[in-house]
Amino acid sequence: MRHLIDIQQLSREDISRLIETALDIIENPGRYSEVCRHKKLATLFFEPSTRTRLSFEAAMYELGGDVLGFSESNSSSAAKGESVSDTARTVGCYADIIAMRHPKEGAPLVASRTAGVPVINAGDGGHNHPTQTLADLLTIYREKGSFNNLTIGCCGDLKFGRTVHSLISAMSRYENVKFVLISPEELKVPKYIKTDVLEANNIPYIESTSLEDNIGKLDILYMTRVQRERFFNEADYLRLKDSYVLTPEKLKAAKADLSVMHPLPRVNEISVAVDDDPRACYFKQVLNGKYMRMALILKLLEVAV
Ligand code: CP
Question: Are 127 and 105 contacting, i.e. CB atoms less than 8 angstroms apart?
């Protein structure tokens, strides 16, 4: 595998090996601190980001490498009309690996065809976000010890929430996994995720509009933000944005070992009063993301440690 565009490109064995590497990095950071010396990561972010871009950059620095790139399309020649394909071909002359975020679905795939170096999808429109899923998988593994026998509730904007699409794809390959898909009618998970992923893998799922009716049966609650930037109509966003707000009161009905996850950024969908609950895992996801991105960079650059 030369690029990571979709989480489905990684087998269960690939994911196990990435997790093993990430856990070894956590235990033995010194062993990895020079392994990417003289290697360069380019972060090409055509959309805003805090966690993904900075964790990729921190990951490369902690591997001893260097970083170049841009954090908004207006500061690149995309503003003059340059294509994704030409941008990728150009940056491939300067960098050894590229992480790209773009508002258009499929842009990182297009980039991968001309870059000449590995390209990582750091989020493409409302489509996929495979490295967030790697962060989520390490978090689930560290919290639950396994990916099997889990009931996972995904709550919020399941239509545009690309992290949910990638998470469902990844988790649908494990045993006895069930999904509870909680969203307003207008923000239900896309049909292709239901037919091509859930039903194709015989994964049981239900759809519901109620968090309260379902919270008690969940092992993982994956909250998501309503994705304002993907709405065509501000009035619809304002009507839907506060559909679900997780509070300590609602958590009283949840299992004692529930894991509350969120890819962040959060707006209103998890009350800050939940942050001190031992079940809150969303800031653990942030840190786990850096370790999994370190492991992924090593894999794609074929660096032996
Ligand atoms: N989870 C995530 O993608 O966060 P950023 O948008 O801050 O990168």
Answer: yes
